Amino acid sequence: MNVQRSLVLIKPDGLQRDLLGEVIGRFERKGLKIVGLKLIRLTESMLDEHYAHLADKPFFASIKEFMMQTPVVGIVFEGIDAIEAIRKLIGSTNPRQADAGTIRADLAMNVPSNLVHASDSVENATVEVKRFFKDEELFQYEKITDRYVFGEGV
Ligand code: TYD
């Protein structure tokens, strides 16, 4: 069974639009386990690292400014193949092109206010969880639903 952890950030548009519960609820209903959860006030240096792959883009300064407008909600989810499962749930970067049923398609219209960030690879998930969460902020616990959600792990 390939149990993974992935980092999700709910962006300032999610907080401003009162969509935190809706977004978290979609991940919960899927069966992803919350192992870390907090509000984070992002700094420019955190964002320089987090969006380093976009540093040469013309919109780099404006997405950093956007991400610092309010605190964001940081969540670490755990589940079988969680990284890919979460990327499928959130949908593609442009909410107008994302598949119907995904968080971005159903709840957003606009890049960069596309509501959520989620790790896109095992390597990035490892780095991103460490970037935003200390070890003591991550929890391991059993839920009575684990046997139904995790099943035989297929
Ligand atoms: P990226 O890592 O390419 O996408 P994703 O969030 O789907 O992994 O981009 C990070 C964020 O940067 C994206 O969620 C919104 C913003 N962005 C723009 O504002 N304009 C753009 O053209 C792109 C590609 C991204």
Distance between the termini: 7 Å
Q: Count the E strands.
A: 4
Just name the CATH architecture.
2-Layer Sandwich
Distinct ligand kinds:
thymidine-5'-diphosphate
Beta-strand fraction estimate: 15-25%
Low-pLDDT stretches are: none
What structural category arises from helix and sheet content? alpha+beta
Q: Helices and strands, in N-to-C order?
A: EHHEHHEHHEHH
In round numbers, the mean pLDDT is: 97
The name CATH uses for the topology is Alpha-Beta Plaits
Main β sheet profile:
4 strands, antiparallel
Query: Helical content, roughly?
Result: 25-40%
What is the C-alpha radius of gyration, as a whole number of Å?
A: 15 Å
Number of helices: 8
How do the strands line up in the largest sheet? Answer: 2-3-1-4
CATH class: Alpha Beta
- CATH homologous superfamily, by name? Nucleoside diphosphate kinase-like domain
User: What general form does the structure show?
Assistant: globular
InterPro entries: NDK-like_dom (IPR034907), NDK-like_dom_sf (IPR036850), Nucleoside_diP_kinase (IPR001564), Nucleoside_diP_kinase_AS (IPR023005)
EC number: 2.7.4.6
GO molecular function, one term: ATP binding
Catalytic activity: a 2'-deoxyribonucleoside 5'-diphosphate + ATP = a 2'-deoxyribonucleoside 5'-triphosphate + ADP; a ribonucleoside 5'-diphosphate + ATP = a ribonucleoside 5'-triphosphate + ADP
Set down the secondary structure blueprint.
Elements (H helix, E strand, L loop, with lengths): L2 E8 L1 H5 L3 H11 L2 E8 L3 H7 L9 H8 L4 E9 L1 H9 L12 H5 L8 E3 L3 H11 L13 H4 L5
Thymidine-5'-diphosphate binds next to loops.
